[in-house]
């Protein structure tokens, strides 16, 4: 018999809910057309607005160019001191001659990789992006193909690339959710390079430019990542902040001005840190439920989680949360400690249902022949 029952005695009154309460979506909005707020540690999406709709990412897609370069650095095929050449294509399409965002790289010069990283992050240099693309894959179209393939490998399921810069193209499309995933990938998988994102200015070829990320200058807890703007995309921002031991990642796009981008970025981050808290439901190894056992030397087996069960949510979501266990009862002996025997289900409004494996918290041996016979007889007579 499959048993599905709400947990009432162990979760405490604040968590005890017999059924999910139907309620409207979270009452918070933004003037951005697209938005995703993500918890850095877990990758959970806390709030979104059309977060899985494909959009023009503009220069925010330069994060994928940087990710490709960080991959090469991590693999050892490229070093920070290596120098990449600036081709005529890089100079004309992304340099001073292009009229676009540039690090003012000189035609025919060779620039250290570390400098190109700073030119991309701080100065949003299209010339730096193209130089990286050509050095790593021979041409920008080949690099774009590699970007699309690599994006799939790291979980960016709705992203395609046509160039390294974010220049408008029908095939240069991402979602806010994918951009948040990409930012998290950079922050946690390449921590040795993340410090470049907090640099507020950089000078190259005698020209000093300030970081285009406005949140760096408005909020001291912000330490990255990238802005974007074209007529097709509007104004966008990928931003992350760390307060105490908590990190949030925010993506917004489709805003109408630099001022709106700056104000919305800081406003939503502030709201996110205030509104969402981490709640511990169960500690690793704590007994969540005692399940009946069939023909075992013990009548019950404790069900536990291998890891802490934590959830990030608002107080209102916490009140409406439903927690239940699901297992087939009785569980036949023998049972080995650590064996999966059930599932903990956590349902929270506006969030996907979570299912956590429940493990046996102890060994339960099978009864001997006479013990099994006695157990079966008792079950026939008394039903237990």
Would you summarize the structure shown here?
This protein has 384 residues and is α+β, with helices and mostly antiparallel strands. Helix content is 29%, strand content 27%. Strands 1-15-17-18-13-12-16 form a 7-stranded mixed sheet, with no helix packed on it. Strands 3-2-10-9-8 form a 5-stranded antiparallel sheet, with helices on both faces. Strands 4-5 form a two-stranded antiparallel ribbon.
What can you see in these coordinates?
29% of the residues lie in helices and 27% in strands. By secondary structure, it is of the alpha+beta class. It has a 7-stranded mixed sheet with strand order 1-15-17-18-13-12-16, with no helix packed on it. Strands 3-2-10-9-8 form a 5-stranded antiparallel sheet, with helices on both faces. A two-stranded antiparallel ribbon has the order 4-5. Strand 12 (289-294) and strand 13 (300-304) form a beta hairpin. Helix 1 (62-75) packs across helix 4 (126-137) and helix 3 crosses helix 4 (126-137). It is elongated. The relative contact order is 0.15.
